TrEMBL record:
Organism: Halalkalibacter alkalisediminis
Pfam families found in the cross-reference section: Resolvase (PF00239)
PANTHER family on file: DNA-INVERTASE FROM LAMBDOID PROPHAGE (PTHR30461), RESOLVASE HOMOLOG YNEB (PTHR30461:SF26)
Protein name: Recombinase family protein
Keywords (A to Z) from UniProt: DNA integration, DNA recombination, DNA-binding
DNA-binding keyword on record: yes
InterPro entries reported in the protein's UniProt record: Recombinase_CS, Resolv_N, Resolvase-like_N_sf, SSR_resolvase
Amino acid sequence: MKKRFGYVRISSKDQNEARQIKNILNAGVNERDIYIDKQSGKNFDRPQYQALKDPSRLREGDTIVFDSITRMGRSMDDTLKEYRWFVENGINLEFIKEPMINTNSETDDVILKAIQQAVLVILTAFAEKERSDIRVRQAEGIEAAKKKGTKFGRPLKSLPEEWDELYLQWKNGQIKAIEFMEIVEMKKSTFYKKVNEYELLNPKRSS
């Protein structure tokens, strides 16, 4: 019998996976078949992801549902390799936010597959660039804070990958605080704690 699995990934322990789980449950996946990792998407050395790929569990014709391609991975080359591995092994992939790259092991439409590959390359390239840009901006913020004599420990490293861009959107009035919290999957108390830590390290951005 073909099964539907779900995979959830959040970038830090301060994030909340509830939104992704809700979306995957709405896509018809049983809660006991959802696998969750709380770590970066820079590579695929993640315990729950690897457990899901175990041949004794995942079989030809099964489906894995992701909230987004970025939840699968942030590295372009590695994500493309993983995507192709699933296709070659007859595993169907569903991406709630990017249905145009969903796969179907029962179709032989060459043109459709070529289009999907092209779109996939673009999406994974943007995901990797976004991660790279965020790391650069974070490094610049740390360096600026050091020059000002600011002392800090680990808080910045635990921020979600998309934090920097979302913070700017929030400050510019493009999104509301509640939308920001929902996207980064944080509770109100955790959210404002992280905002304060971030602004201490990036004083120019908070002005």
